[in-house]
Amino acid sequence: MEPLGARQSTLRESNLSLVARTVCASPAPLSRAGVAARTSMTRSTVSRLVDDLVAGGVLAELEPPAVTGPGRPAIPLVPSSGLVALGLQVNASYLAARLVDLRGRVVAEHVEYDDLVGCDPRSTLGRLGAMSKQVLGQAQGARLVGAGLALPGIVSSGSGRLLLAPNLGWSDLEPAAFLDDEAVGGTPLRIGNEADLAARTVAQVAPGRPGRLADFIYLSGEIGIGGAAVVDGQVMSGRHGWAGEVGHVCVDPDGPPCRCGSTGCLEQYAGRQALVAAAGLAPDATPAELAERLRSGDSRAKTAVASAAWALGIALAGVVNVLDIPAIVLGGHLGQITELLRPDLEQQLRRRVLSARWVALTIEPADGDPAPGATGAAQLELTAVLANPAKWVD
Amino acid sequence: MEPLGARQSTLRESNLSLVARTVCASPAPLSRAGVAARTSMTRSTVSRLVDDLVAGGVLAELEPPAVTGPGRPAIPLVPSSGLVALGLQVNASYLAARLVDLRGRVVAEHVEYDDLVGCDPRSTLGRLGAMSKQVLGQAQGARLVGAGLALPGIVSSGSGRLLLAPNLGWSDLEPAAFLDDEAVGGTPLRIGNEADLAARTVAQVAPGRPGRLADFIYLSGEIGIGGAAVVDGQVMSGRHGWAGEVGHVCVDPDGPPCRCGSTGCLEQYAGRQALVAAAGLAPDATPAELAERLRSGDSRAKTAVASAAWALGIALAGVVNVLDIPAIVLGGHLGQITELLRPDLEQQLRRRVLSARWVALTIEPADGDPAPGATGAAQLELTAVLANPAKWVD
DNA sequence: ATAATTTGTTTTCGCGTACAACATATAGAA
DNA sequence: TTCTATATGTTGTACGCGAAAACAAATTAT
Questions:
Q1: Are B5 and A18 within 8 A, CB to CB?
Q2: Residue A35: nearest nucleotide (C-alpha to C1')
Q3: Measured between beta carbons, which residues in chain B are less than 8 angstroms from residue A246?
Q4: For a Cys-Cys bond, which of A49, A113, A262, A381 suits A85, CB 3.0-4.6 Å?
């Protein structure tokens, strides 16, 4: 039996975390009194906790503004910029290394675009390690709280092993073994699924700061299609951390065979590779080229987009029926063609989602961040600090 | 902002709940020292909390057993039988009223079988109310902690309204309005979806006592098919409480039209109505009759079952890919034909579930309880007591 | 009988939040 | 300028709760 009794120190840890998260969650800097009002704690209690968090380098005080209202001017509190996390990402078309601070700002980054399909893990991760060292060099005395790596595949985060990344051609390997200690700043490397981590950046625009949507389905369009379901601000990872494989939901049992061994998977209609092939474009064609073809009335392009939208509608309707999540965020190449997909997609959803008569579904593109997985990986580490700042304060 | 600061009383509430849940969770009666060992709390703390819970009527002490080991004999602790909850259920083929105590035992029950398709809400709920009063009469001085009603449809539990129950022919009504105060023991009536509540009885075999499975997909086979996803012992209810509509996942976009307006819904292949019709049986045929036909080599029955298993495989594979839940529990008529479905169902799942190569899926029937929704509704109320026993103790 | 062992209770202590009073710093009015 | 109102931040005391240790109780083994 795991649930442990709460001690008095638990109380402190819990409230310390609450104060830190409240400050991080607020778009505008809060004062001690503001935190007290939002948490229903007394000013005295908040004051002591804030003092500890400031001393511990988790929060920082700003100069009081020149113009204030009546009463003693408040001291604005903000997340400290002295805590940073390293986010790495390997994708089929790029490598990325990022340093993100507790305010959610990208302190340093390095992205290299390249075709990495079928690449060698050792040399690729070696290259990523060099990029990482360079980025870490720009840390300027900030404390590194952790490092994470986003991968486009099935990951066993407990054991730190990548089980399968079909788009890279990688299987059953331990990425940390190919990254030396210096490349991850001496911290243990946590690995995660790219779509899960990208979805996290939508759910949290900065560490501890919730985004506009708390419940949504995120689709990451790449060569294939990854996905994640976010419920109440939390990414649903499932029993083993393999949840969100929307790309392999069956859209049509009589459809084309998929790499995974099944038939009619969503990926075979709306994955980038399938989509550009169906539109008669070169494998490395961009979404902009596809849009151009559509504008010029190309019938193959039209059919390809309609088919993708149709397939997305069927798959997502199933997911919405099962999860009751009324918002969809499209990332990767799907984000760039959201408006092309919308009409057919919405039609399918209206028809097939049981609750469509009571609640309207929203569909929107993710922001255009080229490497959201890296940011998500870094945010995950920073969020861990907010979940238990006592470790950093005492 | 909702998250409230933790006070010292929060600590007490939390630990009080932990003690109560620990006692309830244990299959064999625990002593104070046993609770202390499992919760990592000290014996002194546990002792004080247990005393309060016993005084408050949440827990009870048993007589020490005659035969013990060395040392002072322990006082066995059990959930009190003095707290009961009322669980009601309306289904297409029966009405049920149950009284369940904190030990998870059915203290009193009354089930009436009838064809309720297209029945009148007022008279049906009036009839249920009469059954409820009779069952409440057998309470024998126990305290009623709450009442719940399980319904086969889409429910807005916040507002207490049933939005749609296609199998009953009900829509947009407030069940509590048709049940007088006496019929619900003077407590507010909470309504819930039948499949969600039935799934709860699998996740918790008694209030606070986890079942064998903590993560599973529950399918409730009736005229249609309801469902629920349980993650980490909790039923996923979704943004509005409408999650789990597996019955309307699209299995084949070119399939037969469904009542819901879509096409090729799982329900059209594996729902009871669809299944018996495809097998050439009368609408009220039992699963046993279907099995009999199969044994005698009837080809229509064979095709019908194969088709149902095929459809279940496609729909469930999608759900498993999205949720990463490696266990499936079949209830209602599907539970009774689990073994007939298993071969084809397992084959589809092996083929279409992405993680099938690493984890084996389990498929099993639910226990044969005729009205699991009623038990689940009662358990929900009892679990609320365990979540905050401080309310009942102080 | 005596020792050993385990359970349950009691007492004292420390920690952390609540509460109230007070100090601090501004805006606005007399 | 001076006084008042208002809001923020700090200080000191009180209270509640869990921790730890000592003690009492009830049984088995020697």
A1: yes
A2: D8
A3: 321-322
A4: A381
Q: Give CATH 3.30.420.40 domain extents, chain B.
A: 83-201+372-393, 212-365
Helices (H), chain A: 8-25, 32-39, 43-55, 121-136, 194-203, 267-270, 272-278, 287-295, 299-323, 333-336, 338-352, 372-387, 390-393
For residue B377, the one-letter residue type is A
- Locate B274 and state its tokens: 């669809």
* Fold (CATH) for A8-65+75-79: Arc Repressor Mutant, subunit A (1.10.10)
| pLDDT above 90 as % of chain A | 84
Per-residue pLDDT at B394 exceeds 80:
no
* CATH pick for B8-79 out of 3.30.360.10, 2.40.50.150, 1.10.10.10, 3.30.43.10: 1.10.10.10
Comparing CA positions, the residue from A246, A248, A260 lying closest to residue A218 is A246
Q: Give the contacts of A66 (CB within 8 A, at least 6 positions apart).
A: none
pLDDT reported for residue A70: 80
Tell if the CB–CB gap between B322 and A40 is shorter than 8 Å. Answer: no
* Amino acid at site A142: A
Nearest by CB to B322, which of A15, A229, A260?
A: A229
pLDDT tier at A247, thresholds 50, 70, 90: very high
Please compute Rg for chain B using Cα positions: 23
Residues forming CATH 3.30.420.40 domain(s) in chain A: 84-201+372-393, 212-365
Preferred mutation among A18, A39, A239, A259 to probe B, highest tally of B CBs within 10 A = A239
CA distance B246 to chain A (A): 6
Can you tell me which residue has its alpha carbon closest to the C1' of nucleotide D29? B70
From the list A5, A231, A321, which residue is nearest B41 (CB)?
A: A5
Per-residue confidence at A2, pLDDT binned at 50, 70, 90? low
pTM over 0.70: yes
A212-365 has CATH 1.25.40.10 classification: no
Which residue type is seen at A95?
L
Domain B83-201+372-393 has CATH 3.30.420.40: yes
